[in-house]
Amino acid sequence: MALLALPHLIPHRLRRNHRRNQCRCCSSSATNEGSTAVVWFKHDLRVDDHPGLLAASKHSAVIPLYVLDRRILSRYTTDTLELAIIALEDLRKTLKKQGSNLMLRYGNAENVIADLVKEVRAHSVFVEEEVEYHLCNVLDGVKKKLEGVYLSGEGKPPRIVFWQTPFYESQSLTDLPQSWEEFKKLKLPISLPVPAARFSSPGSELQWGSLPTLDDLKDYLKESLCEKENNWREMAQASAERVLMERLGNLKESSMEPIVDGSLGKKVDNSAFVTSKRDTVGGGNETVLNALAGYLRCISYESGMLLIRPGASFFKLFGPVLCLGIVSRRSVHYEAIEYEKERNAGFISPFGYSAATVSAATDTVRSMEWYYLLALNRERIDEKRLAIRIWRWKGYLIQYTVVGNEGPAVLLVHGFGAFLEHYRDNVDNIANSKNRVWTITVLGFGKSEKPNIIYTELLWAELLRDFMIEVVGEPAHCVGNSIGGYFVALMAFLWPALVKSVVLVNSAGNVVPGYSLLPISRERRVPFGAQLGARLLLFFLQFNVKKLLKDCYPVNPARADDFLVTEMLRASRDPGVVMVLESIFGFDLSLPLNYLLKGFEEKTLVIQGMKDPISDPQKKVALLKELCPAMVIKQVNAGHCPHDEIPEEVNPIICEWIVKATSDDQEELKASSSQQICHIKEIADKWRKKTTKKMWRRVALLSPMISSSSRSLTLNQAASGLKVGESFATDIIKPEERILPPKEKAPFITFVLGGPGSGKGTQCEKIVETFGLQHLSAGDLLRREIAMHTENGDMILNLIKDGKIVPSEVTVKLIQKELESSDSRKFLIDGFPRTEENRVAFERIIRADPDVVLFFDCPEEEMVKRVLNRNQGRIDDNITTMKKRLKIFNALNRPVIDYYKNKGKLYTINAVGTVDDIFQHVLPIFNSFEQLKESSHVNPQSHLGPSLVENSS
Ligand SMILES: Nc1ncnc2c1ncn2[C@@H]1O[C@H](COP(=O)(O)OP(=O)(O)O)[C@@H](O)[C@H]1O
Ligand SMILES: Nc1ccn([C@H]2C[C@H](O)[C@@H](COP(=O)(O)OP(=O)(O)O)O2)c(=O)n1
């Protein structure tokens, strides 16, 4: 590989002057005289083989734009961010050579693009299509926003042109066979790359923006993410292996600093490598194509380690640049084939390529393209009403689904050889019992990507961790069948803050009495003979799938139906499947379930099909009962997959469990909040006695993550107990012993509830005066939208006039904007949440929980009297609207009040009396929070009524 670093060995770029392919969106060769186009670069950071740019070049002027949108960039690892910066720098240079430039702007893509369109009076915006769910949402936002942009003198909004870089020449990419075998039979020709476009820049003076450094970008993202998101991102940076070593005590204290990604920054001079390990290629399009030419020619002559598994090296080297679109997949294919021809006097043998590197490169891009096509076709292939979504993990396409709008989060993880549809009769049912249910097809299975890598149980646990962090966004009840159960148990062991409870459905993994730790080998290699074994196994499985499946469903064999058999067979023929099967020979399930779930026993439900042909269910249940008495065990009359064999029996068990586990959480929280107030010192002492030094440090490290996660109530309790306890435990936890740096505190949030005219605003003014919190009135924010005639202004006006509630998304986004742009860390959010929907939207979008909820309780006649005398010229302060508002308040605000009452956060204040009298009841509540006293503008102690702090001492 070192050859790539030597400039004299870098081969000249292959000539592509005979490229002739036309872009799907630019068949007309006519120039759009006097018109301007914006080309939005996202994952297409190149000029070469860029159909969008080529199509845009028909306009008189083209503005290439890159939007630094946090919704996109926050999903990148530090390495990817750094790669993107290098590529942007190169793209800008290339464009400048053509007399153009790359515009760099910060913000949400829809706003940035709409503003730019207005600024330069652009007629068209060119955007590459995406398959990932969160990116599709961003694209929809851009599309919608542009539909509302009318330039003066133009009769219609700007045109938005979506484009692709099709790998295959086919009339349609959305009507292709779902089976790799069938697809290959079509023998679709592979498209040729298109030549680089020539275009003009607009003459006017434009602000092009400067290129950020990695630190700039990290700070920008850190600022725009809430504390919990930042903490969770940090959790995702240490590998599963490292966390495991730490948990097992195999890691030396001295090497305990956080291992973060971002190993770049060590670009090897004069080479295309961006890592000191020389295992990742980066740079601009030209550099990457040169590196590819070097790879194709040089590496095949080296007996280097990178070719031990043909193809593995290729994705490692080029995967990241392919994901950022620095080169297109079809360019890679083209270069590889040209090289093969060069080696064989223009001849391509029907028996395979003559160089292993050519096979590796072409196999990888064809495989990537196949999973892209499966993702693109996801809606059409949806069998059971499950709306399939796509998530990209480490560059790989993963399929998942989510059902349900309210209630606790639940994650369902399938077993070996299965896929998310294996929960076909569980998802809706569990969601209908007021849960939000996510199902995922993990890497290597179903229609998710099957890259050429070494699969281990730790890799899958890491994937689940990242799914929880990036997609679910809150701790969940995690259900796993077979090996999926083991992955879930491993996740609970490694990152307990992510898991509310564990449900094991005929889980893989042993139960071992008297277990003492075995050393775990760090090096994971594929055992000798695994490849042959995997091929034989694959052959055996394909041949016997129907029978094997029926054996797993002994009570209800009809459930092992054609749908399951067909999809299993389909998946077993996908490219890359042999590598996944190899993992069976390399799994390390040596940590038994009883060890992994030691701290989780009370939060574990075991559903065991007692006719499981794969394990010995009697023995397993007996051992679990003996060794894990706190676990709840349900024995059912089914085989290896009870959730699918007898869903009518298993669904209620899971639903009841979730209700119980959730209410246990709330009980513990309630108990803890009163304990915290009354017995802070005792709690600290208790904790001190109960916990060993090591445990203290581990749990304390997790506490910032735990406490900021809105739904992990029990863990919240532990975390806050610890935070309080830390001050009494300096002998146990010393600052220098921390593994991670201390976190910035989460913002202090107060919700102020009460009917219209109950005096919320009046009391808020006094609270602000005394404690310096920032006041955000939901009503004022909405009225500001009306006054500013924003796009939602008219809609808000009509709803308020009618006494109705504005859609939560709108209100929460306004609050979010204020929270994000504020320097304050203490907020008083007034008139919010008015409904359960408001509350859930806040939790979902802001990902924070209030510290205090004030409720001003006022009789209706008093509220009516006050509102009718308010005299602020408000359109809704009239008796007709007031009656409607009161009706809505009584119907919709009550559940919110009850919710916070149950969580122990509600402070009800009698709102009858003088303003000052009422404030006397408010004071002690805020006085009991140390962080508010710091910024108090007057001496609040002087107002002290009987405060909670006094009570507790
Ligand atoms: N304790 C009180 N007694 C009498 N009038 C009050 C009291 N508190 C507020 N008001 C008056 O009642 C009206 C409604 O109060 P406001 O704070 O705007 O309520 P809300 O927050 O519910 O909209 C205002 O005109 C205010 O001056
Ligand atoms: N969370 C919120 C807050 C207010 N609104 C709308 C509906 C309310 O009647 C109006 C006015 O709210 P505001 O909090 O100013 O009203 P009161 O102070 O309670 O009289 O705004 C909303 O739709 N959602």
Automatic annotation (TrEMBL):
Its main location: cytoplasm. Residues 35-168 form the Photolyase/cryptochrome alpha/beta domain. CMP binds at residue 838. Pfam families: Abhydrolase_1, ADK, DNA_photolyase. GO terms for molecular function: ATP binding; nucleobase-containing compound kinase activity; phosphotransferase activity, phosphate group as acceptor. ATP binds at residues 757-762, 870, 913. GO terms for biological process: 'de novo' pyrimidine nucleobase biosynthetic process; nucleoside monophosphate metabolic process; pyrimidine nucleotide biosynthetic process. Its EC number is 2.7.4.14. It comes from the Eukaryota. Its cofactor is Mg(2+). It is found in: Cytoplasm; Nucleus. It catalyses: dCMP + ATP = dCDP + ADP; UMP + ATP = UDP + ADP; CMP + ATP = CDP + ADP. GO terms for cellular component: cytoplasm; nucleus. Keywords: ATP-binding, Cytoplasm, Kinase, Nucleotide-binding, Nucleus, Pyrimidine biosynthesis, Transferase. A ribonucleoside 5'-phosphate binds at residues 783, 804-806, 831-834, 874, 885. It is an enzyme of class 2 (transferase). Binds 1 Mg(2+) ion per monomer. InterPro entries: AB_hydrolase_1, AB_hydrolase_fold, Adenylat/UMP-CMP_kin, Adenylat_kinase_CS, Crypto/Photolyase_N_sf, DNA_photolyase_N, P-loop_NTPase, Rossmann-like_a/b/a_fold. NCBIfam families: UMP_CMP_kin_fam. Monomer. Catalyzes the phosphorylation of pyrimidine nucleoside monophosphates at the expense of ATP. Plays an important role in de novo pyrimidine nucleotide biosynthesis. Has preference for UMP and CMP as phosphate acceptors. Consists of three domains, a large central CORE domain and two small peripheral domains, NMPbind and LID, which undergo movements during catalysis. The LID domain closes over the site of phosphoryl transfer upon ATP binding. Assembling and dissambling the active center during each catalytic cycle provides an effective means to prevent ATP hydrolysis. Belongs to the adenylate kinase family. UMP-CMP kinase subfamily. This is UMP-CMP kinase. It comes from Arabidopsis arenosa (Sand rock-cress).
